Amino acid sequence: MLTVVKKEFKSCFLAVKYNIMREMLNPVTFVTNVLFMILNNASFIIQWLILYSLQDSIGGYSFKQVMLLWALAATTYGISHIIFHNAYRLSDLITDGKLDSYIVQPKNILLNVITSSTSISAIGDLLYGIIIAILIGLNWEEWLLFIFFSITGAIITTALAVISGSTSFFIIKGDMIASNVNNLLVHFSTYPEGIFNRTIKFIFYTIFPISYIVYMPIRIISKFNLGLTIIVSLVTILTIYLSFAIFNKGLKRYSSSNLMSARI
């Protein structure tokens, strides 16, 4: 069992490594994409500076907490899209019948699919998040929690992308569901939790578990709580299980496009 897990991790690592190396063949484009993403994210700091010049708290969040929210959201997005970028294209691959070349390989099909491409601009998101975390002055304990929740957040985000993308196995317009879910994740994860009403918050903790990606981790980093940390960990494990279960069930319904393509 451990040998199989080790083999899969090694396969994923190599896939990400070669994806990034392939993108770096054009260094100008590579650096430009990364820098422009950092600048694009940094522009939103001006918006929050203006808002906090008018009042001390927004949705119960201080300026430092909002910056921590952005840092965590950015690193979560960055890790997910660097390593598992194809999770966000899963619906198109299913609809177009392009899973053939993955199915015939002696690897875990889902991991093989979602690690087969990377987003270079996401490196800019990752670097931006780290820079913000440095600027707000996290101590070493907060850094450990920040890294931990960046990883759990990336896993939950990826798992949700897989689950929503896998709907294309079952319904024709599954790509619309996947697109909306992914967009909502990005949109809501950068605003303080307190600005939303009780109904929205309930959805965030149940149907659409965005709270376990950013809101609960922010609370834990600000004031450590072992119980909440365990809850986030359990939700992470649950979403992993659901993503594999739903994808594998849907795979039984998959129809090939008969495209003869190869992955190198």
Describe this structure in words.
This protein has 264 residues and is mainly alpha-helical. The chain has one domain. The chain has 12 helices and no strands. It has helices at 2-23, 27-54, 63-83, 90-95, 100-103, 109-114, 121-135, 140-165, 174-188, 198-205, 215-222, 226-251. Helix 3 packs antiparallel against helix 7 (121-135) and helix 8 runs antiparallel to helix 11.
Give me some keywords for this one.
disordered C terminus; mainly alpha; 0% strand; 12 helices; 70% helix; 264 residues
Helical content band: over 70%
The major β-sheet equals: none
The coarse overall form would be: globular
**Share of residues in strands:** under 5%
In round numbers, the mean pLDDT is 86
Low-confidence stretches: 260-264
Number of strands: 0
Order of helices and strands: HHHHHHHHHHHH
Q: What is the domain total for the residues?
A: 1
Structural class based on helices, strands and sheet pairing: mainly alpha
Counted by DSSP, the helix tally is 12
Query: What is the rounded distance between the termini?
Result: 27 Å
* CA-atom Rg in angstroms: 19 Å
Helix-strand blueprint:
Elements: H1 2-23, H2 27-54, H3 63-83, H4 90-95, H5 100-103, H6 109-114, H7 121-135, H8 140-165, H9 174-188, H10 198-205, H11 215-222, H12 226-251
Helix pairs in contact: 2-7, 3-7, 3-8, 8-9, 8-11, 8-12
Would you summarize the structure shown here?
The protein is mainly alpha-helical and 264 residues long. The chain is 70% helix and 0% strand. It has one domain.
